[in-house]
Design goal:
The protein is an alpha/beta fold and about 750 residues long. The chain is built from 25 helices and 30 strands. A hairpin with a 2-residue loop joins strand 20 and strand 21. The protein is globular, with a radius of gyration of 31 Å.
Length: about 750
């Protein structure tokens, strides 16, 4: 176990606790003020350290968000990373203009970042200590189905309550399992899970119960809880159980309730390197840490579904609106301007027209279909409803004019200093089954843009039903963001209300994430309300705060997005072939590509024979961190028009971005056509553009085509050992330009 802390006091406390519990650390790092070395550097080192099986973090603040996220995501794929983040509450937070900014607290953003990185967050120092013991002594859980064995009903009920409240799953005992337990347990045992074997059970009942449950393939983990009894000493039970628990291939956690009567039993298990806890709640909490880590790992390798509708935003049109507003000295886009930017990203909006006076409002309304909505336009007013600046269901030109005049009067009383630039007039949206949602974005000072989703409307900050995530988003991440809110259950439909078009909601979130990726000038964005029903989505109101962008491209994001600018089309023997970075959505076609490789191809690429690639392996191949790795694939349409992968070249950079190690493979039937040369040239240009100093690789001596290709591309070839050769390309300094990546 490695421990990294920013607090000297925490460092000494953890060391003292670990000594008392007989635990050691592979590495123990106190960062201080991180003047030079920070979390990202140390996590990078520990992530590849073979002597470190898990990493614990005590975090007070994070600097270098992209480096931290990149290092943490890489480490969390290989070993548990658990963090406690101090400073959950920020008093006197800086005032923000939008609902989104008010709703997306700093701790919410940290929570979203840690979850996105695959880091398991704990709440208290006690949880952190429990995590140390659990990771050091418990086996990883194979699933989530838990069996609880207890010598009394009360502790079993307490453990079950905590398990279910924590999102755990109680295993169901099959009829066969009940019959097997019936064969030796006392007649009045519980006959359900929790398995209450009763306080007067002899020692062998404990052992046989544990052995029987360990044989059940429908049980993934077992929690044993024992309270002292007068029938059998706790030490006797511990001596009988310890060898069984030690030899178990599944997770077994124990809780010895009490103090004096169970002290010897607890010490016996501790000496045997078996996890044991003081209370049922502590034991369940430790078990859920293992379960949540497993869930995080599954999320990291889950294949995102393909986007059902591709969209190409009109970035030029959106930027024209923003540039004009900045040139005019604006810091906030008007509602019509904000909707124009949304329309450029194919987000449906209500047609909105601008009027300068109440009379012009009436004229515009006459040309539209009644009823209409009139809103005040002012750069000084964020929430128009708060000052009576919104009028709904206006059916005649006279009502429209009167409503606009009334707004001016109210504004003069409530906000006399506010500037009025006019009115917006739009058709009243009649969507009786629509839910009012909020979709927005704000900018965190550490992690950059943050996407928010939740229940919208004028009471949005009171209801406080929201979740946040870091861009970029794909369909899977958008779905997870929605599912973390209470309103998601309403969107599924109920009573007479049909389900909302969830795909339209997910796509809207993805489009907003793309918007703030493309347009770093947008630092706050509100779409509130966003109507959502079975017909799709419709943005009724929108507001954006803008600033001049001081960083181009997607540098402002904590996670590097898909580098679309690296896509290109080449011609191979008269046919177009697409070269592009790999995407998580490519997993199915990449699995097909790997399955069609010959045994020799696989042997030459991976140095071993692999019969079949597991889902987790292919997920690692396709879900890469573009900040430290790159994989270019060559694709073309197959006979059915679907893209098929023809070859792939990949590289992984060292943390200092000095050296990249590459590997590549091309389908056997396509070798000799120039595809390998095109892929390798693409990677060389990319690494040179990134400022790498050299590219290295290894291949087998018998792989003469690869060696010949490497030499043609300028690689030096030297002997590594009897079976392999070493390839090295010195990348001459070259000034980066726009063509280098493609």
């Amino acid at each position: 176990i490695a421990f990294i802390t920013q607090s000297g006091a925490m460092a000494t406390a953890v060391l003292d606790w670990a000594t008392a519990h007989g635990l050691g650390f592979s590495n123990f790092v106190s960062l201080g003020n991180s003047a030079d070395v920070d979390f990202g550097d140390v996590i990078d080192f520990l992530g590849s350290d073979p002597y470190t099986r898990s990493i614990l973090l005590y975090i007070e603040s994070i600097t270098g968000a992209r480096k931290f996220m990149s290092a943490a995501r890489a480490a969390a794929r290989n070993k548990p990373v658990i963090a406690i983040k101090a400073g959950r509450v920020t008093e006197g937070a800086q005032a923000v203009m939008s609902h989104t900014g008010a709703l997306a607290g700093a701790d919410d953003v940290v929570e979203a970042a840690l979850e996105r990185a695959g880091i398991l967050r704990v709440e208290t120092i006690e949880d952190l200590f429990d995590a140390v013991e659990t990771l050091a002594r418990a086996r990883p859980v194979l699933g989530e189905r838990v069996a609880i064995v207890t010598s009394g009903g009360g502790p079993g009920v307490m453990a079950t309550d905590r398990l279910i409240r924590s999102g755990g799953c109680l295993a169901t005992l099959s009829d066969d399992m009940l019959a097997r337990l019936d064969s030796f347990l006392l007649p009045n045992w519980s006959r359900r899970n929790p398995v209450d074997i009763l306080e007067d059970a002899p020692a062998d009942h404990y052992v046989r119960t544990l052995q029987t449950l360990l044989d059940d393939p429908d049980i993934d983990a077992i929690l044993f809880i024992h309270a002292p009894t007068a029938i059998v000493p706790s030490r006797t039970i511990a001596q009988a159980l310890a060898p069984v628990a030690k030899a178990a291939r599944r997770t077994v956690l124990t809780c010895w309730l009490g103090r004096t009567g169970v002290a010897e039993a607890r010490q016996l298990f501790s000496d045997a390197g078996l996890p044991t806890y003081d209370t049922p709640e502590d034991a369940v909490g430790a078990l859920m840490q293992l379960v949540n880590y497993r869930r995080n790992q599954e999320l990291l390798i889950e294949t995102p579904p393909s986007v059902p509708v591709e969209f190409t935003p009109n970035v030029v049109a959106a930027r024209a609106v923003i540039d004009a507003a900045l040139a005019a000295g604006q810091t906030v886009l008007t509602e019509p301007e904000s909707k124009a930017v949304l329309a450029a990203y194919e987000i449906p909006t209500v047609e909105t027209r601008v009027a300068a006076t109440p009379d012009e409002c009436a004229q515009l309304a006459q040309a539209m279909s009644f009823p209409v909505v009139v809103k005040i336009l002012s750069p000084d007013i964020t929430h128009k409803s708060n000052v009576g600046g919104v009028a709904l269901d206006l059916d005649t030109p006279e009502e429209v004019r009167a409503a606009a005049v009334g707004m001016l009067k109210r504004l003069k009383k409530r906000r006399p200093q506010a500037r009025v630039s006019g009115f917006s007039v739009q058709q009243m949206a009649r969507r009786p089954d629509a839910h009012e949602l909020i979709v927005g974005a704000t900018t965190d000072p550490v992690f950059g843009p943050v996407i928010l989703f939740g229940q919208g409307g004028i009471a949005v900050e009171i209801i406080h039903d929201r979740a946040v995530s870091l861009p970029p988003l794909n369909l899977k991440l958008a779905r997870e963001l929605v599912n973390r809110t209470r309103v998601s259950r309403l969107l599924a439909g109920y009573s007479h209300r049909p389900p909302a078009d969830m795909t339209a909601i997910y796509l809207t979130l993805m489009k907003v994430a793309q918007l703030v990726t493309d347009l770093p000038e947008v630092v706050e964005l509100d779409i509130n309300p966003l109507f959502a029903d079975n017909q799709g989505v419709l943005a009724l109101d929108a507001r954006m705060r803008i600033v001049p962008a001081w960083r181009p491209g997607a540098v402002h994001l904590a996670i590097r997005p898909y580098p679309q600018e690296l896509e290109e089309t080449i011609i191979i023997r008269g046919q177009p072939v697409r070269l592009r970075p790999i995407r998580p959505e490519d997993e199915p076609q990449h699995q097909a590509f790997l399955s069609h490789l010959t045994e020799e191809d696989i042997q030459l690429r991976f140095f071993v024979s692999i019969r079949e690639f597991a889902h987790s392996d292919v997920a690692r191949f396709t879900q890469i961190d573009y900040d430290r790795a790159m994989a270019f694939i060559a694709t073309r349409p197959d006979d059915s028009g679907q893209p098929e992968t023809l070859g792939v070249v990949r590289s992984i950079a060292d943390p200092d971005n000095h050296q990249a190690e590459f590997a590549m493979i091309v389908r056997s039937d396509l070798k000799g056509m120039g595809l390998g040369r095109a892929l390798l040239d693409k990677m060389i240009r990319y690494c040179r553009h990134r400022g790498m100093r050299e590219i290295i690789g290894e291949t087998m001596r018998v792989n003469t085509p690869m060696i010949r290709l490497a030499r043609k591309c300028g690689f030096e070839v030297s002997s590594a050992d009897d079976e392999t050769v070493f390839l090295r390309l010195d990348l001459k300094p070259a000034r980066p330009d726009s063509s280098a990546g493609g």
